[in-house]
Specification:
The structure holds two protein chains of two kinds. By secondary structure, chain A is mostly helical. Chain A is built from 39 helices and five strands. Chain B is α/β, with parallel strands linked by helices. Chain B has helices at 20-29, 70-74, 92-96, 98-108, 131-140, 156-172, and strands at residues 6-14, 42-51, 54-63, 82-88, 114-120, 144-147. The chains are: A mainly alpha, B alpha/beta.
Chain lengths: 1019, 203
């Protein structure tokens, strides 16, 4: 234990020792370092020791410099002190001089003033006083205290003060005296002295009072002479306006004349004070003139009467009181506008004068604002302004009455000159309104103008427009109306008391004129707004933004009268449309229904040679339009033709949709639409392209060479039209081309749908698909019944049906030898019929399958042709799709007599197509093909066929060797479906063959149509 | 053109000194300038406000209350979309005049006009017409009622915004019967005022 402890201790000591050794090494290193530095440091110290004396010298020198600087600053301080006291001294000297000169002046003034007063040289005296007043009074007092000879100076001051008050008294007195003596020179003389005596305000007051009295006298005189103006005088009607003019002109002259005087002797900026005094007289005189005017012109009585009239006419209809003739007010209104304008002008004059004066004389912005404010107050509170407002109020009342009454009169006296499109009321009304607005402009008051514009707007919108509307409301009596309508029109016209019964011609004219009046009025309103704005801008050139806004708002109200008028025109045109256009146009256009649109080439040329539908229509339209052309204004005539066009195109569209067309019918229609559009374009100034868009498109579709060309126009590719017709409408139009050529199935789609065998939805879906399908050999539309057959053959599997339809049309297109030219008159078919027996078995199997039976009649191979036989076999199937559609089809072929030579006549390609069609394109289920009496050659044939037929189909083809017993056969096909020869219950095969021929003949029309429809598809 | 969808004319009427100008100033400029002095003729202010993200321009016509300006002010009634009839709640005479004003409105304004009765100066201590009297009067005459203070800016914004909203609603559902059912005064006579003046729509 202890040993290990010891070892531990030893270890730690050793560590410590090592550490100490390390430290020792480091210290030794450090000491060595220091020793190395010692020499260097000692060198440095020596160097410093050498520097010490130099530093001492520097210190001394610096001390010296400081002393010198101190000295300099002290001396400069002294100098500046001297200068300051020198300045002071000089100021005092100046002051002293001023005082002395004041004192001298004081002495001179005090001596001079007395003599001046004594000599009545008031100017000189006032100049002395002015000099005295311009001295600093407090300074004078101080001088007096400083001086010994106080008494003499104080005496002088006292003398001067006395003299000043003495002079003031004298001048005031003299001025009054001069005023009393009307001594103009003295008045002016003393007026100039006032400001020298410090009496600015008093001077202006006295002087202006004097001027005021002068004005009063003149005004009095003027008014008196105005009152005495004989009624015969030319100016009698505006004599009060003239009096006001004289008054304001006088005031303005005074102001203009005295302003320089005041400015020179009183300084600028004092005009407001002067004018305020004059304004008082202006107020008094204006009021007096207006009072006299009101009395003479009986203004209050007139206004009262007008108010009463307006109240009565608005509350009740009987207004038996004497109306004031608006014409009689004319002169009065002119006088008021003149008076108002004079006041307005004078106020503007004062305003301008004072503003100018303030601008020159008052540099301080704040003071100037104060002046502007008090000027505004002065004007606003003056009786003059009040009078102005009252005048405006009178004016507005009278003008309003004048406008209303005059317009009412213009309407009442409405007359039509022969050969005119509009009657007198339009010109008259707008003349009146224009006159009133112009007169309002001559008042110079924007508020007044706005009110008259507002009133004009009201009169036009209610009084004037209502008359026009009322006339249109009575309708346009048409000669083509039926009796009851005509009777009603007659009744209402008689009730309105406006029309004499039976003169429809006159009421027609009234209607047309009202329509034209409305049209003309819209133009007038627009012109009126333009002119009025221009005139106002001329008369009131400095409108601020706010006033401009006011004016524009009122004017926009006026111009919106046109909206009202356009409404009226619209209403009238609609009236015309229903009474004059529609009843006439409809029978004309309906003629279209009586035309044949399934034309042969011969019929086409005959049609083109003769008078066509459209020529007659155009002629009729021409007659109709020409009856309006001269009586309607051009823009109304345009509106009428627009309505007419809309009416014709709509109606034509309607009758087209009721008709059906063949290719040539479509061609004719297209031509007719073009010539109609051409005619209407020629008669109007606007483009009819838009109105004819639908019609043109309909005609284009019906005029297609092949219906499937529609794809060139339809869709989103280049050259596609912007269609105005919806897809449904387009389908409807296409159907018009095909409708007459329907396939006769002797059942209808709806019957089958009713039986529940298929659904309308499936039919519709297929139809939609057909319309958008892009395979060019498939037609755009297929008859519903055929679609039903396809659906039935595919057990209503839509996708399968689509495939079947495609194969059906594809194979039929590729094999015209099998599917086209199915006329029984054709030699090859007749020959085939002789060579073979083609039998439609008239009885269905229990599964509702149809059976066809084919056998060789003539085994001579040279008579056998493959293609006609194939053709006939399909024709047999078509005989089965007449009436109740069979579920499927079974082929029973007797191959007896089939030889190697027959085999050589067969070609693989048609056979291939034949079977593809049979299995994939037949609108009927292919149930089975039974080949009886097979032989070696047939087996060979089937071997070939197998190569391109699928298993599914091959299974349906069954081959039976010769020697099949009748019972065995009956197991495949029931006896009721077999001819006698094959042990069946039916007649012999020859008889059946004969009967089949008849059935085939019955289907010839069907094939013809089928072929044409199919071929309407461009391939 | 500025971009606003509706333009409405609002006309203020009422006795002199009831505070029409102050109401308008407060609304359009946010000011209450005392010592205005009487309005001369008519004043015209414009403010565009926003109602439900649509800009509505209010053309406010501030009319003079004094009798001698009546023939000026009357001519603005016809094209107004809204009429604000103002009285001073501290002045019985201004309230007593209301029937006269209504008669004038009846005579000159369109019968489709939106009418609002406003009792102004509710900041004043010396009220003479209690609120319920004003309200009752408004109800009897088929008007909106609002009390305001142009000085304290009470209800001023609300007044004009309410009008803007109502007029917009009206413009949208043209001519549907307004406010409550007991409108015996309206529709007495057929209007000759054209609809065209209502709201100028701009694109």
């Amino acid at each position: 234990m202890t040993e290990s402890k010891y070892a531990e201790l030893q270890k730690s000591y050793q560590q410590e020792l090592k550490k100490l050794e390390k430290e020792e090494d480091a210290l030794v290193d450090e000491l060595n370092n220091m020793l190395n530095h010692k020499v260097f440091l000692e060198d440095k110290i020596k160097g410093f020791a050498k520097l010490i004396p130099t530093l001492k010298v520097i210190k001394h020198e610096a001390q010296d410099l400081v002393n010198t600087i101190n000295n300099i600053s002290e001396s400069s301080e002294k100098i500046s002190g001297n200068i300051r006291s020198l300045d002071n001294a000089r100021n005092r000297v100046d002051e002293c001089q001023a005082r002395v000169s004041d004192l001298i002046d004081l002495e001179i003034c005090s001596q001079g003033v007395q003599t001046a007063i004594l000599d009545s040289d008031y100017e000189k005296g006032a100049a002395h006083v002015h000099r005295f007043l311009s001295m600093d009074q407090s300074l004078l007092k101080r001088t007096a205290n400083d001086m010994d000879s106080t008494s003499s100076m104080l005496k002088s001051v006292r003398t001067l003060q006395d003299a000043a008050s003495q002079l003031r008294a004298i001048v005031t007195h003299k001025f009054t005296e001069a005023v009393n003596a009307e001594d103009l020179v003295s008045i002016e003389r003393f007026f100039k002295i006032f400001p020298l005596l410090g009496l600015h305000e008093e001077g202006i007051k006295e002087f202006c009072s004097y001027l005021r009295s002068k004005v009063a006298v003149t005004a009095e005189k003027n008014l008196k002479s105005a009152l005495n103006t004989p009624a015969s005088d030319k100016r009698h009607t505006v004599v009060y306006a003239d009096t006001l003019t004289l008054l304001y002109e006088g005031l303005a002259r005074v102001t203009d004349k005295q302003q320089p005087l005041i400015e020179t002797y009183y300084g600028p900026g004092r005009l407001l004070a002067a004018i305020s005094i004059l304004q008082k007289e202006c107020d008094v005189q204006t009021k007096r003139v207006l009072l006299e005017w009101g009395k003479t012109r009986q203004i209050n009585k007139k206004i009262q009467m007008i108010n009463e009239l307006s109240r009565l006419s608005s509350s009740s209809s009987f207004n038996k009181i004497d109306r004031i003739e608006p014409k009689d007010l004319d002169i009065l209104i002119v006088e008021i506008t003149l008076m108002h304008f004079r006041i307005e002008l004078y106020i503007r004059f004062i305003h301008r004068k004072i503003m100018l004066d303030a601008e020159v004389g008052v540099p301080n912005q704040e003071d100037r604002n104060k002046i502007v404010k008090s000027l505004e107050q002065l004007i606003k509170n003056s009786d003059l302004s009040q009078c102005k407002h009252e005048l405006l109020s009178h004016y507005l009342r009278l003008e309003q009455y004048y406008m209303e009454e005059s317009v009412a009169k213009a309407v009442a006296m409405d007359s039509l000159e022969t050969g005119q499109q509009i009657s007198s009321m339009v010109d008259d009304t707008f003349f009146i309104i224009r006159k009133c607005i112009r007169r309002s402009i001559s008042t110079g008051s924007l508020d007044g103008i706005c009110v008259i514009i507002n009133n004009a707007c009201r009169v036009l919108e209610s009084d004037f427009s209502e008359v026009l509307r009322g006339r249109l409301r009575q309708g346009y009596p048409s000669g083509y109306l039926d009796l009851t309508q005509a009777y009603n029109v007659l009744q209402s016209s008689i009730q309105q008391g406006r029309l004499q019964s039976s003169d429809t011609e006159q009421s027609r004219m009234a209607f047309i004129v009202a329509l034209n009046n409305s049209d003309n009025s819209t133009e007038y309103v627009e012109a009126l707004c333009d002119n009025v704005l221009k005139e106002i801008e001329q008369a009131l050139p400095n409108l601020n933004d706010n006033d401009r806004g006011k004016l524009e708002s009122c004017l926009s109200g006026l111009s919106s009268v046109t909206i009202n008028l356009k409404d009226i025109i619209d209403y009238g045109i609609q009236q015309l449309r229903s009474s004059a256009i529609k009843p006439r146009i409809n029978p004309w256009v309906d003629q279209f229904l009586n035309m044949n649109h399934h034309l042969t080439d011969d019929e086409l040329s005959a049609y083109e040679a003769g008078e066509s539908f459209v020529q007659t229509l155009i002629m009729n339209l021409e007659t109709l339009l020409s009856s309006f052309k001269d009586v309607l204004t051009s823009s109304n005539y345009d509106l009428l033709t627009q309505v007419l066009t809309a009416e014709v195109t709509q109606r034509l569209e309607k009758v087209i949709m009721k008709s059906t067309f063949n290719r040539l019918g479509g061609l004719v229609l297209d031509k007719e639409v073009r010539s109609l559009a051409g005619y209407i374009t020629a008669t109007t100034s606007w483009s009819v392209r838009d109105k004819f868009a639908r019609l043109t498109q309909i005609a284009t579709v019906l005029n297609l060479e092949q219906v499937s060309e529609i794809y060139d126009y339809w869709g989103s590719h280049d050259g596609a039209l912007t269609w105005r017709l919806t897809p449904t409408e387009l389908r409807g139009v296409i159907a018009l081309r095909l409708e007459k050529m329907s396939l006769d199935f002797n059942f209808t789609a709806s019957e089958i749908i009713k039986e529940g065998k298929t659904t309308q939805a499936s039919v519709t879906e297929l139809k939609k698909w057909l319309f958008t399908n892009t395979e060019k050999f498939v037609p755009v539309t297929i008859q519903d019944e055929l679609i039903v057959l396809f659906l039935l053959s595919c057990d209503n599997d839509i996708e399968l049906a689509k495939k079947t339809i495609k194969v059906y049309y594809k194979i039929r297109r590729e094999c015209p030898d099998i599917f086209d030219n199915r006329s029984l008159e054709r030699a090859e078919l007749q020959k085939a019929f002789k060579t073979m027996r083609f039998v439609t078995i008239p009885v269905r199997t229990v599964n509702n399958d149809a059976v066809v039976y084919i056998s060789l009649r003539d085994v001579n191979t040279s008579n056998f042709e493959m293609l006609p036989s194939m053709k006939l076999s399909f024709m047999l199937m078509d005989t089965h799709q007449y009436g109740n559609p069979p579920d499927g089809i079974i082929f029973l072929v007797d191959m007896e007599g089939f030889t190697a030579m027959h085999l050589t006549k067969l070609r693989p390609d048609p056979i291939n197509k034949y079977f593809i069609y049979l299995s994939e394109g037949l609108p009927m289920k292919f149930k089975a093909m039974y080949l009886l009496n097979s032989n070696y050659f047939l087996e060979k044939l089937l071997g070939i066929i197998k190569m391109f037929l699928n298993q599914e189909v091959m299974k349906k083809i069954q081959v039976f060797q010769p020697g099949l017993s009748l019972d065995e056969l009956a197991e495949i096909i029931p006896k009721q479906c077999l001819p006698k020869e094959l042990g069946g219950e039916l007649e012999g095969q020859e008889e059946l063959s004969d009967k089949t021929l008849q059935l085939l003949r019955n289907r010839e029309k069907f094939w013809e149509v089928e072929e044409e429809l199919r071929k309407s598809v461009k391939c | 053109m500025d971009d606003y969808k509706f333009l409405f004319k609002v006309v203020l009427v009422g006795n002199a000194g009831v505070g029409k100008t102050c109401l308008v100033r407060r609304f359009t400029q946010g000011l209450f300038p005392p010592g205005q002095g009487a309005t001369i003729g008519v004043d015209f202010m414009i403010k565009t406000v926003e109602v439900g993200n649509e800009k509505v321009k209010l053309q406010i016509w501030d009319t003079a209350g004094q009798e001698r300006f009546r023939s000026i002010t009357q001519s603005y009634y016809r094209s107004a979309h809204a009429l604000i009839l103002v009285y001073d709640i501290s002045s019985q005479p201004t309230f007593d005049c209301l029937p006269d004003w209504l008669r004038e409105i009846e005579e000159y304004a369109s019968n489709k006009v939106l009418r609002i009765l406003v009792g102004n100066k509710i900041d004043r201590e010396d009220r003479e017409i209690p609120a319920d009297v004003g309200e009752e009067f408004a109800e009897r005459h088929n008007m909106y009622y609002l009390e305001t203070s142009a000085k304290e800016s009470d209800n001023v914004e609300k007044l004009f915004m309410q009008i803007a909203e109502d007029l917009m609603k009206q413009a949208r559902t043209r001519d549907l019967p307004r406010y409550d059912s007991n409108n015996q005064t309206l529709d007495g006579k057929t209007s000759t005022i054209s609809d065209s003046s209502c709201c100028s729509r701009l694109q």
